[in-house]
Amino acid sequence: MNLARRTMNHPAFALVYERAWRPASFFAATGRTMQADRRDAVRVLRLRGDRRVLDIACGPGNFTHYLSERLTGDGYAVGIDFSVPMLRRAMSDNRGARTGYVRGDARQLPFPDGSFDAVCCFGALYLIPDPMVAAREMIRVLAPGGRIAISTSHRADSWFGRVSTAVGGAGGLRVFDTDTFPKLFAEAGLVEIEQEVHGLMQYVSATGPR
């Protein structure tokens, strides 16, 4: 297990991750606030009504709970993570009537094909071993016509981007090219593929084939 994954699995890090580390690090990388990211997540996933939502690598559940509050009827959001300390924080801080949490591996999701109307993974694919396998699993559990969205690292062509890539790589973080995920989604038959790049992060969304 590399340094990045060991850090994510440490109980002390789970305490500060969503409250301090993630907001500060993402703002430094993108110039965007967590509030903006959450609003955009609701928009690109087209959340409404009784949608079934899967939040992969949910950490302490802040995004999962936020998304669940935008649902009505029989809608619900499931957060899945491999880290026990993160899931403990999720169960402690972000429980809700429409929210549930599962421990599992993003590379082998414990759900049948087409189980969810919206599938997302925000700020985690660069930490997961075999991220392409995890991305294909996201596509597998997506219902026909459902929405998929990710935010992940971007190989910026600048001195800061090159330094960040080198430093991140030393700690076990992967950095992806601009076309990596749009190409993967297109090859899987997804449509309405959209991408935004903000600094060192890229945001990619698409619609599953009907």
Give a brief outline of the structure.
41% of the residues lie in helices and 24% in strands. By secondary structure, it is α/β, with parallel strands linked by helices.
Summarize the topology:
Layout: H1 3-8, H2 11-30, H3 34-45, E1 52-56, H4 62-68, E2 76-81, H5 84-93, E3 99-103, E4 116-122, H6 131-140, E5 142-153, H7 159-171, H8 180-187, E6 191-198, E7 201-207
Parallel strand pairs: 1-2, 1-4, 2-3, 4-5
Antiparallel strand pairs: 5-7, 6-7
Helix pairs in contact: 2-5
Task: Characterise the protein shown here.
The chain has 210 residues and is α/β, with parallel strands linked by helices. The chain folds into two domains: 1-30; 31-208, Rossmann fold, CATH 3.40.50.150. The protein has helices at residues 3-8, 11-30, 34-45, 62-68, 84-93, 131-140, 159-171, 180-187; strands at 52-56, 76-81, 99-103, 116-122, 142-153, 191-198, 201-207. The model has no long low-confidence stretch (mean pLDDT 87). Residues 54-150 form the Methyltransferase type domain. GO terms for molecular function: S-adenosylmethionine-dependent methyltransferase activity. This is Methyltransferase family protein.
What labels describe this entry?
210 residues, 7 strands, single chain, seven-stranded mixed sheet, alpha/beta
Measured between the Cα atoms of the first and last residue, the distance is 38 Å
User: Can you write the helix and strand succession as a string?
Assistant: HHHEHEHEEHEHHEE
> How many structurally independent domains?
2
Note the beta-strand portion: 15-25%
Helix amount: 40-55%
How do the strands of the widest beta sheet line up side by side? 3-2-1-4-5-7-6
> What does the radius of gyration come to?
16 Å
Biggest sheet record? 7 strands, mixed
Name of the level-1 CATH class of the largest domain: Alpha Beta
**Structural category:** alpha/beta
> What is the total tally of β strands?
7
